[in-house]
Amino acid sequence: LAVAAMAGPTTNRDSSVNQALKPSQWLSAQQLENIPAVDELLSRLENMSLEKGAELLQQVYHLSQINHDVEPNYVPSNVQVYVPKPNGDKIVAPINEMIQQLKQQQQQQQFGQDEVTIIVTGLPQTSETVKKANRKLVQAYMQRYNLQQQQQQGQKYNTDSSSEENKRQRSSSEENYSEQAKNANTNTGDIIVIDLGSTLTNYKRYAMLDIEKTGAKIGKWIVQLTSELQLPHETIHMIGQNVGAHVAGAAANEFTRLTGHKLRRVTGLDPSNIVAKNR
């Protein structure tokens, strides 16, 4: 009887509205909240009139047809980029302004003379653990490239001055980061840090990050970087951390798609399991 009532003109609503699969178009927030759970549905129907029961079943039916798949749609704009210098200073600029800054450095023969390592962070530096891991990674490459003198170590990139902290065992991530630098094939170079992690200020942004589109934007930027600064693609090494590892891979693919060339190397550190399972 309920099914028959659903098929009949039991309400004054327009049929096109009734058949819409977006609840906000035909149900108020209060009506949505009042729809019972499945285990309560039968008992609720027993105490309803035929017309009211049919209306409730119609609402439940439409809700069951909604596609619950969520597509990632967050693409950060104008991510901050910084380039650490031998004296401990940093060149900091939005990504769309950094190439111009690097041109000035290149004219002074202070950039792009050898390998260029591009690091894509993947976690916000809201915890000391993440800050320390990022600092250790940059520090390891600075040391490897001989850009940081022995007496400057620990001033800008190592704030752990207490003996107790120095005795703590390094995390596996930090050891992996340092090991990557030790295995580098060159002794000189420059570092560019694309601080994607700083834009992921909450879990929603992290979960909804569009890996492919974000990576494509960075890939196009690397094409512009190598073109305007005349950097050989064979000297570019990309490193991605956590979700940044997946973005780095997408960026390298976009670079290859646009140029027909492959970057020298792409390294993923601690890639995100969430992203890996959904790809």
Structural overview:
By secondary structure, this protein is α/β, with parallel strands linked by helices. The protein folds into two domains: 2-64, no CATH class; 80-160 and 170-277, no CATH class. It is 48% helix and 12% strand. The chain has 14 helices and six strands. The chain has a six-stranded mixed sheet with strand order 2-1-4-3-5-6, sandwiched between helices. Helix 13 (243-259) links the parallel strand 5 and strand 6. The model is unreliable at 1-21, 147-157, 159-175 and 177-186 (pLDDT under 50).
Please tell me the overall pLDDT.
76
Binned strand content: 5-15%
Rounded Rg: 27 Å
What's the N-to-C terminus distance? 46 Å
Series of H and E elements: HHHHHHEEHEHHHEHHEHEH
Oligomeric state of the chains?
single chain
Structural class based on helices, strands and sheet pairing: alpha/beta
Overall structural domain count: 2
Please describe the biggest sheet, giving its number of strands, its sense, and whether it closes into a barrel.
6 strands, mixed
Number of strands: 6
Give a brief rundown of this model:
With 279 residues, the chain is of the alpha/beta class.
Give the helix/strand layout.
Elements (H helix, E strand, L loop, with lengths): L1 H6 L7 H4 L4 H4 L2 H6 L3 H9 L3 H15 L15 E5 L5 E5 H13 L7 E6 L7 H17 L18 H4 L5 H11 L6 E6 L8 H6 L2 H18 L7 E6 L1 H17 L5 E5 L3 H5 L2
Parallel strand pairs: 3-4, 3-5, 5-6
Antiparallel strand pairs: 1-2, 1-4
Helix pairs in contact: 7-12, 8-10, 12-13
Organism: Scaptomyza adusta
Pfam family, one: Lipase
GO biological process, one term: lipid catabolic process
